[in-house]
Write a structure and sequence with these properties.
Mean pLDDT: 97
Low-confidence stretches: none
Distance between the termini: 42 Å
CATH architecture: Orthogonal Bundle
Shape: globular
Oligomer: single chain
Bound molecules: protoporphyrin IX containing FE
Number of domains: 1
Structural class: mainly alpha
Largest sheet: none
Number of helices: 6
Length: 120
């Protein structure tokens, strides 16, 4: 028997959709980054982040968005903004009762995207 994937341990499609929704709404209330999302199509961004998280954690979903470097290039995103997004990820995971080990794994996976997102 193989180990369950992070996707499975997070709670699969239903849970990850809820996490992506809470994440967007937490960003929209976070004073460090909220201005970045004022013109966003909430449902569209939630859907793309949902797909991204599923795909990155071993789920069967295809990610239909652009790669991280292409999306964030030219936005001049600071270290502080990047940390604010990581903070919000933890808030969303804890709001949905995700386990400590799974929080740490997802946080590290996202932290590792830093080079494609900060000041690119
Ligand atoms: C690990 C960190 C991050 C991940 C996984 C991530 C992921 C994504 C994804 C999947 C999209 C949609 C892609 C598309 O439109 O094709 C997106 C869009 C976006 N991201 Fe990020 N992102 C991260 C960090 C950040 C940071 C630090 C900021 C700055 C505050 C930021 C600002 C944005 C904005 C403004 C959009 C466009 C929203 C829109 O289309 O209205 N992201 N991000």
């Amino acid at each position: 028997m193989s180990e369950p994937t992070l996707y499975e341990r997070l709670g699969g499609e239903e849970k990850i959709r809820k996490i992506a929704t809470t994440l967007f709404d937490t960003h929209a209330k976070n004073p460090i980054i909220s201005a970045r999302y004022v013109n966003s199509d909430r449902d569209k961004v939630i859907q793309l982040v949902f797909e991204f998280l599923c795909n990155a954690t071993g789920g069967p979903q295809n990610y239909t968005g652009r790669d991280m470097l292409t999306v964030h290039r030219g936005m001049n995103i600071s270290e502080q903004e990047f940390m604010a997004v990581l903070d919000d990820i933890l808030v969303a995971l804890q709001a949905h009762g995700v386990g400590q080990r799974e929080q740490e794994e997802l946080l590290l996976a996202n932290f590792n995207l830093r080079g494609d997102i900060v000041r690119v």
